[in-house]
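anyone seen this seq b4? input:
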Amino acid sequence: MSLRKAALTFSVNKDALHKRIQRKLKNLESFNIHKRSLGSFKKVLSDDTENQLVSYIKEMDLVYYGLSISDIQQIVFQYVEKYNIVHPFNKYNGVAGRDFVSGFLKRYPDLSIRKPRGLSLNPHQIFNCNESGITTVHKPVKVITKKGKHCISSATSGERGVTTTVVCAMNVTGLFVPPMMIFKRKRMKLELMDHAPFGTIGGCSKNGWITTDLFIEFIKHFTK
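predicted toks r here
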């Protein structure tokens, strides 16, 4: 129905009806613009950060520790909170919203939500890795002595003990990986490995304990 016909049909002034329609159209346009701005998802993370997250998700999947939606929500929330990034997430729940995850997966179609199946490994494929600290000066052990004797002495070294760490890995079939010995010193000397088991590798740290870098060296040694 045209404007003129509507004015005649309902007996209203055509100019007044025209102004009322224009006002309604303007309000409707403003509402649609506002609605679109609310519906569109504003990215919280930069492209570089999202690419790092994608790489991390894929790396965890390769080692059979795939991340769930809840894991991703927690990781993203903790990241934006740590670096003071403005975000719309609920701080009470402490996780990123489902809308973020949905938009994130749409931007990276090579990722998908799948239900993993149980993985069974043979006993010889499962290794237990542990570290043990060995000191050069041991505390005296309890000895048997005469009752009533107040002072019990034991000969021991007068020097201060130094800790050496040994990292070992073994499976249930008895197969073991040559250990790694970590000494308290700055530079490694080949003489320290004299009489060590064949294939043993050595390393050094400030306190003789294992560090992140040394553990990575052992993992590389383990995979050879």
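Strands lie at 127-135, 163-171, 176-184, 201-205. The radius of gyration is 35 Å. kinda curious what u guys think
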